[in-house]
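Data deposition worksheet. Section B asks for the primary sequence of the deposited chain exactly as it was used as input, without tags or linkers unless they were present during the calculation. Section C holds the resulting structure in token form. Section D is free text for depositor observations; keep each observation to a single sentence. Incomplete worksheets are returned to the depositor.
Section A, Depositor: J.P.
Section B:
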Amino acid sequence: MILAGVLSIGLAGYAVAGADLEEYHGVPFTLAAHDWLDLEVLPTTAQPSYRLAAVMPPQITDLAVIELEWPGSDEKCNIGVGIEGLTPGQYGSASRAFLAVAPTGNDAELVPGMREGTGGVTRMCIWPTAKDQSADLVVVYSVASNMQDAAVMAFKVSRSGAVTEVSTSNANTLFGWFDVRDVNRDDSYELITSRNLDGMWGGFFYHSVRSFDPALNVYAARPEGCEDYFRQELAWLDWVIQTQPLIQQDPGKYLNETGSGPAYMAVYNGVAYGFDSIIEVPLTFTGVGDVREFNRQRRESFQLIKDYHDELEAWLNGGSYPATWKLAR
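Section C:
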């Protein structure tokens, strides 16, 4: 399954309706913000851009600057994302991200809490903790150096200019994609990340949900209160498990004829999913070196999906946390 083309819409494919942030364009990463925040992408020649760049290493090659207006106020907050690398626009092991913040009337400062590592910012989501001037801004972002796993980090900005690290409990996500959504409609936005489910690179995934605790400045794993979200994930897993034998019995009906991406595809709620990681091939197939080993891996991958389905169903019926979550109660 090719996640890169699915993850940007995959969360909406089966997640419960929740308060979504608004997506914006004009920066070299995906960006979403609450509609209480007026957002503008500034040119690098704007004065705030110079202020933010001044606290970053002089060798940054890319700079993106976002200007936000505080809820219920005309005060602003500028956030800059700089990349130190060899070639503009080329993120990888030779590049590193730097974030800086400058609320109105305050000096620019680098964001604390950056984890060690390299790469560029792949996504950023911003939401306010209130609808008025008392709000803090919570900024969640991912940093990746390749197209698979990415660290997710966060910080909080107050109108007074204080910039505080928000722990994400060591959250990681596939391909740098995550979502920030008010899943349970309590005006606090949960962090939703994606994890590999079937053990195959580019295979099926499941989601982890972390809730924001303003007193502790932490996104902590608290699935309680998000049961409706996971019921939708369970319904999606039902569909995957029911669809796999249909493809196995009549693969020609599900062939991807676009010329790129997975070989076998099926659509759920308007989102196309690849099934290559769980479909076996005939023993006469010559496209792989060891057909028996290839098929054994597909059987194991499908079993992981079925196991998680059963674990999740048991939890929703009052049982213990799914073992797949590796989450202690």
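Section D:
Residues 20-181 form one domain.
The first strand starts at residue 22 and ends at 24.
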